[in-house]
Amino acid sequence: MPRTVRFGIYSIAVGLAVLVTKFGAWWVTGSVALYSDALESIINVVAACVATLALHVSSRPADAGHPYGHGKAEYLSAVLEGVLIILAALSILREAYSGFVHPRPIEAPLLGIAINAAASVMNGMWAAVLVRSGRSLRSPALVASGKHLFTDVFTSGGVLVGFALVPLTGLQWLDPALAAVVAVNILWSGYGLVRTSVGGLMDAAPDPETLKRLRTLISAHAEGALEVHELRVRHVGNATFLECHIVMPGDMPLRDAHAISDRIEAALREDEEHMVVTIHMEPEEEAQHRGVLVL
């Protein structure tokens, strides 16, 4: 079983444990804010299930029907997770409105804080594991899940701080107000996740630092060539696809030109394990006098 899929299964288990714990905190207190926090955990479990399925699909090798692999399944799961987050936020806003109209006294606040805090610590530890492992494995789905959980941890922390003020101040409206703040924060998180994932589906270019590193690498290993232009890079799951045109001297033997191409491909694949390189060679009259400077 691929490591990414194992992480997905672990995420489901952690999500269920956090869900039960947070609903326990709401059960003993009756707090709308803690209910909103628990409701988001349902979305976390559903998102973990969808992400695990996507990770399983994306781990399948390329085939005749999908010659570029199945990596974009992870972006689809991340988009769906973002939509689910937005729906959860809207549901929380509805509960917050109900709390304003029909305020309810909070019971056993200290016990509720302790239970919810335990769930938040569990979430925070697992979120750190997901983000670190997702970046190491080049998995958009794992990174998205980890960042989502970190958002949950921060909002839970804010809820707990404000929740503790309710019995101290006697202001019952603080409880639904906190729920509304949580909902707005979750809406922003969902929007950011959808935007990033759609960028992956649309083959958005990588960040400038990545492009700069690849251009420097090509330049350092293209000795003998005249120019490299039309450099294009895109990420598909944990794979990176790079295409470029290399201008060679017109009288250079094909064998020598091919050796330069092989040298560049080897350097790029050493830099990124799952790199797919396509190089188009052109004669010197095709030079555009732009692109990558050959050292």
From TrEMBL:
Localization, per the record, is: Membrane
Recorded source organism is: Roseomonas indoligenes
* High-level lineage: Bacteria, Pseudomonadati, Pseudomonadota, Alphaproteobacteria, Acetobacterales
Please tell me where this protein is predominantly located.
membrane
Please state which protein family the record places this protein in: Belongs to the cation diffusion facilitator (CDF) transporter (TC 2.A.4) family.
Q: Domain Cation efflux protein transmembrane: where?
A: 9-202
Q: Which GO terms describe its cellular component?
A: plasma membrane
In the UniProt record, does the keyword Transmembrane occur? yes
Q: Which NCBIfam families match?
A: CDF
> Which InterPro entries does the record match to this protein?
Cation_efflux (IPR002524), Cation_efflux_CTD (IPR027470), Cation_efflux_CTD_sf (IPR036837), Cation_efflux_TM (IPR058533), Cation_efflux_TMD_sf (IPR027469), CDF_Transporter (IPR050291)
**What are the TM regions of this chain, as residue ranges?**
7-28, 34-55, 75-93, 113-131, 152-171, 177-194
Provide the GO biological process annotations.
intracellular zinc ion homeostasis
Q: What is this protein called?
A: Cation transporter
